Amino acid sequence: MWDFPRRAVLVVAGVLVVGGTLAASQPDPTPVGAQAVPTASFEPVTPVTVASTPPPALFPTRDEAGLPSGWSPRQTHDGDLLIDEDGTVVQDLRITNGTVRVTAKNVTLRRVHAVNTTVANDVNGICGSGLLIERSSFERTAPSTEADVPVIGNGGFTVRDVMIDGAPEGIRVGSKHCGGVTIESSYIRIVPPEVCEDWHGDGIQGHNGGPLVVRSSTIVLKERADCPGNAPFFYPEEQGNTSVDVDGLLVSGGGYPFRAGTTGAVRHLQVVQDSWGYGPVDVRCDVVSVRQAAVVTVSDGRTTPVEPITPCAGG
Predict the structure, then answer these.
(1) Is pLDDT of 169 > 90?
(2) What is the percentage of the chain residues whose pLDDT exceeds 90?
(3) How many helices (H) and strands (E) does the chain have?
(4) CA proximity to 257, closest of 209, 222, 290
(5) What distance in Å separates the CA atoms of residue 68 and residue 110, rounded to the nearest whole number?
């Protein structure tokens, strides 16, 4: 849970956001921006485990994930945004220098360009479960610090075809009381903060997280000689996490690019050759089943196997 001071924010509840001001929502056959959409009664979100699929022919890249080519916003907003009406849809919005706080159920953020902006859906103990973020891009262009919160968190949400770039922390999977998390067809690139003393950056990190499902995604952790990070994927046993289900993940960077100690299955894991400090994976073999994992080279999202990874062979 993230605790936020109760201060003035722009509230989206069945209104249009137009240039940072509020306008009464009017019937429109082609609605723009935030609109209220009636939904059925809420059921807690739990990611559905699906059968293993063939390995991706191409993994998402920065240029292909996120906003569609040629996209432009229909509206812009600077500062915080509070969404507190169930079923709200916010689309084709550019938001800068704020936090999107979601306290309503079944909210959708679609084709959103978030610049120096984060999303939180566990706000002062209120879960915005059922949140869907899709076809959106999150970019950090302002100076960052080790104290920066993750770009997206905490529980009960789905991220689909999203690009995250330039932040020191990516996605936080926590607040298991809000539900599990699913991440699909997304690209995450994490970079060190400008001032670095004890940075432990991760692309996806679990801390008191519910069931986590990852499908066909890419996570890159960039480091500096004076500022090493932690791992692109970090779902350890000692942080109260529930389970993992990974099928199709390309990782690069960190001491170990892939670290998992939580019950679950890992398939089609691909680790970029020579991108690690200590080794390609760090897993608890008594609880994590790793199948179809390999060290690879990569070019424009297309991978070429170099050698298999068998962390638990003979264990």
Answers:
(1) yes
(2) 77
(3) 0, 26
(4) 222
(5) 11
Taking only the tens place, the pLDDT of each residue in 45-79 is 444 444 445 566 689 999 999 999 999 999 999 99
Q: If you search the block for the tokens 């970090």, which residue do you land on?
A: 234
Domain of residue 134 covers 10-309
CB 129 within 8 A of CB 121: yes
- Inside any domain, residue 2: no
The answer to whether residues 269 and 251 touch, using CB atoms and an 8 Å cutoff, is yes
What domain count does the chain have? 1
Q: How far apart are CA 191 and CA 220, in angstroms?
A: 9
CA angle 24, 27, 92 (to 5 degrees): 75
Query: How far apart (Å, rounded) are the C-alpha atoms in residues 186 and 27?
Result: 34
CA 71 to chain centre: 21
Residue 8 neighbours by CB under 8 Å, 6+ apart: none
Q: Which is nearest to 136 in space by CA: 155, 117, 153? A: 117
Q: Output the domain CATH number for residue 174.
A: 2.160.20
pLDDT over 70 at 26, yes or no: no
